[in-house]
Q: What sequence folds into this?
């Protein structure tokens, strides 16, 4: 399985990926917060969730733009997994569903980032071993 579908380093397509990811993550966060958790729509909270989605999406795209394509892939997969976990954990819970679902989102996103870093290190060490 090749990684040809992922933009190359320094490509302007990374910013399109960041924009699409930002929009998708924002909408997903809003759905979880204001629909699944049945919380009243508050503009400040909506803005904060949008800001979180934009920051994460652009950080991951920037890393991909720098050439860490596997890191971007793992981080984005962690973000998507976190959104799914957040949606699942927000159902049928009492009391702490906001915090539990947000923590599961953050844990999955951080795990994806950590896995991406590990994969990039392994690839780097493997390349260095082949050359030397």
A:
């Amino acid at each position: 399985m090749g990684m040809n579908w992922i933009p190359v380093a320094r490509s302007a397509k990374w910013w399109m990926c960041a924009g699409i990811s930002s929009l998708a993550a924002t909408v997903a966060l809003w759905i979880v917060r204001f629909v699944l958790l049945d919380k009243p729509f508050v503009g400040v909270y909506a803005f904060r969730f949008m800001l979180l989605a934009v920051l994460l999406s652009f950080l991951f795209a920037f890393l991909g733009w720098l050439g860490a394509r596997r890191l971007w892939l793992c981080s984005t997969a962690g973000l998507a997994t976190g959104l799914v976990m957040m949606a699942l954990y927000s159902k049928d819970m009492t009391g702490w569903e906001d915090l539990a679902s947000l923590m599961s989102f953050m844990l999955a996103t951080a795990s994806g980032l950590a896995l991406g870093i590990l994969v990039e290190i392994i690839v780097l060490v493997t390349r260095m071993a082949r050359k030397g």
Summary: The chain has a mean pLDDT of 93. DSSP finds four helices and no strands in the chain. The CA atoms of residues 18 and 58 lie 5 Å apart. The chain has one domain: 13-131.
